[in-house]
Amino acid sequence: QLLEREPTERLLRSLAELVPMDLRVVDGHDDVVAEFVAGPSAGRPDATDIFSVEYASRTVRVPIAIHGEVVGHAIGCPRSDLPPARATATCRLLAQVLADQAYKEHELHSLSMELIDKYEEITLLYDVSQALGSVFDIPTICEIALDKARQAVAAERVFVMLREDESEHLTVVATPEGGVLGRRIAMGAGVSGRAAASGKPILLNHGQLAEIGLCQEQAVLSVPMLYTTDQGLQEVVGVITLAGKPPGEMFTAGDLKLMTSIATQTAIAIHSSRMIEALREAERVRQELEIAARIQQNLLPQQPPRVPGVELVGRCVPAANVGGDYYDLVVDRRGHLTLLIADVSGHSVGAALMMAMARSVLHREIAEGKSPATILAHTNAAMFNDLSNASLFITAFCARYEPETRRLTFANGGHNPPLLWRSGEGRMMDLDSDGLIIGVLDDVEYEEKSVTLKPGDVVLLFTDGIIEARNTQGEFFGEERLQRLLREYATDAPNLLMEYILQAVHQHIQDIPQQDDITLLVLSAQEAT
């Protein structure tokens, strides 16, 4: 099969012209490859009979061998009284020439086949790269990997298994074997689990896949899907496992190499898909936070109202991650001022919308002239179901100031108690009263208290974003610092007091990003005019 008939026959004719012999070349099955026989002459049989058994005693038969394996024979039959030694030498020379030629053809054929295999391998890998490069859906990626694995390596069964995040299990996500789709395999269990746990491929030509119900002895090739992180660490995404070969066949090192390339490209595609999904999620959250921030800012008063006997100033400094801080200053038809400060849990559009709903309820209650305790109780009752369903809650402080009496009545719903600086007495007070956070129970009563403000007194309402601000050592800003600042700057204008406090907080946290909203509301009692 390695020697072509026509060139071989020309060789036989040329040799026969030098040595009076009829020549024939046969393969390992004694089928004729080529021959040269002179026409019949006196005392010689017809050409068709010259190599028959009848004339076997006159012929010389020399094996043609490649790497010690006999692949055919060179046969010669002298036409005249040619000495046997010369006939034998001629056939040996012919056998050697043909063996060399066959060897070269064999090597050329092997190289050609290897080149074809390499070309097919490169074409397949390019095809895999092209197919995976434009797909960012993980189930589709896994189906493509399954299809390409089946094209690359002949196997009775193919399974693509994924490891979800840091899970200690693999899940079969793609396979023609519908019965095992979705089957979970523990990391380290069975061939696939061991390949995933070790991060190294496993090739067994007498293995088992008991972990997915394939208990019969069979060849198994399991290759982990690995990608390298920015830190140079290898992360296991999953495995591609092939099981079972046709009778007499085994998985080879070439199969392993090819499957490793497919597994690596699949791992990169899956990792890229997850990164893109993470970026999409981050963008979705960013847009959501922008919406929440706009909602939050629209809830805040544009400027403080003018109320006889007090100066008012308020500010909310939002964090990068929107919190749920809210404050309000509302003057009713009687001229009474209601002060509100609140903080809803969560950092989302839902939390911002929940605060917007609470604001509507609070304003309705204020417009109806309800007391601070009643305002909080009714707000809790109205918001309880929505807050519970959203797993949110609200802390709130509500106070009412009556200019004619200078009386400040207040109730607290689990919020940080505001500070009252009594300038005439030189002492600090907490404006605290009993009351549960809004949204915990559906029916809550709130304690109500009151104080009378005197000129020079300062009330400071704040959210936990101030006292819980941390520095690089993890130390809180704390209420003690806040009290010290209030005591030191209480005689300054309210807007200056607020600026001093905000500056102190930012100096405390230094370069650490602000983690929560910072909200301040200052009421400074003035001399009557």
Describe this structure in words.
The chain has 529 residues and is α+β, with helices and mostly antiparallel strands. The protein folds into three domains: 107 residues, Beta-Lactamase (2-Layer Sandwich); 143 residues, Beta-Lactamase (2-Layer Sandwich), CATH 3.30.450.40; 226 residues, Phosphatase 2c, domain 1, CATH 3.60.40. Helices cover 39% and strands 27% of the residues. The chain has ten helices and 20 strands. It has a six-stranded antiparallel beta sheet. A hairpin with a 4-residue loop joins strand 14 and strand 15. Helix 3 packs antiparallel against helix 5 and helix 9 packs antiparallel against helix 10. It is rod-shaped and about 150 Å long.
For the terminal residues, how far apart are their CA atoms? 119 Å
Integer-rounded radius of gyration: 46 Å
Q: Mean pLDDT, as a whole number? A: 85
If classified by CATH, what would the architecture of the largest domain be? 4-Layer Sandwich
The total of beta strands comes to: 20
CATH superfamily of the largest domain: PPM-type phosphatase domain
State the low-pLDDT regions, or none. Answer: none
Order of strands, widest sheet: 7-6-5-10-9-8
Notable features of this structure?
3 domains; Beta-Lactamase; 529 residues; alpha+beta; Phosphatase 2c, domain 1; 6-stranded antiparallel β-sheet; rod-shaped; 27% strand; 5-stranded antiparallel β-sheet; 39% helix
Layout: helices, strands, pairs:
Elements: H1 5-18, E1 21-27, E2 32-36, E3 60-66, E4 69-78, H2 84-133, H3 138-152, E5 157-163, E6 169-174, E7 184-186, H4 190-198, E8 202-209, E9 214-228, E10 234-243, H5 253-299, E11 310-317, E12 325-331, E13 337-344, H6 349-367, H7 372-389, E14 394-402, E15 407-413, E16 419-422, E17 427-430, E18 448-452, E19 458-462, H8 464-467, H9 478-489, H10 494-509, E20 518-525
Antiparallel strand pairs: 1-2, 1-4, 3-4, 5-6, 5-10, 6-7, 8-9, 9-10, 11-20, 12-13, 13-14, 14-15, 15-18, 16-17, 16-19, 19-20
Helix pairs in contact: 2-3, 2-5, 3-5, 5-6, 6-7, 9-10
